[in-house]
Amino acid sequence: MLTASCHCGAVRVEVPRKPRSLTNCNCSICRRYGTLWAYYKSSEVRVTAAPGATSEYSWGDKSLRFVRCSTCGCITHWEPMQSREDSKMGVNARNFEPGSLESVRVRLLDGASTWKYLD
To answer: For the chain, does the N or the C end have fewer beta carbons within 10 angstroms?
Structure first.
């Protein structure tokens, strides 16, 4: 079990294991957020936050919502707007302790243009 938290600790995200890889995406929003995504099935992720502790942002086709801490502003994860049993979500791996992900490969995704991995 790995636990991530925002800077102030108001939002915690628990996942069952280390991710197989991490994604560094250069799309218009990910490059601005400076995130590093770990992907999991939605059913495997537990987000703990008090009511009102998070805020959301969605843009474009409104298929995803990016969730941040309302206090410190850290992006904690993204999730699909329409949840299904097999939905996946992205957890911002920059909120894990760095040592817990030392050996995990970082892949570069060209989300700005081709939506292909560059490595």
So the answer is: N
pLDDT tens per residue, range 12-65: 999 999 999 999 999 999 999 999 999 999 999 999 999 999 999 998 889 999
Check: CB of residue 53 under 8 Å from CB of residue 68.
no
The strand pair at 105-109 and 21-25 is best described as parallel
Identify the three-state secondary structure at position 14: strand
Q: Give the C-alpha distances (Å, rounded to integers) separating 75 from 7, 67, 89.
A: 10, 6, 13
Q: What is the pLDDT of residue 118?
A: 96
Q: What are phi and psi of 118, to 5 degrees?
A: -95, 0
Domain-by-domain residue ranges, the chain? Answer: 2-109
Q: What is the pTM of this model?
A: 0.94
Q: Which CATH class is domain 2-109?
A: mainly beta
CA 4 to chain centre: 10
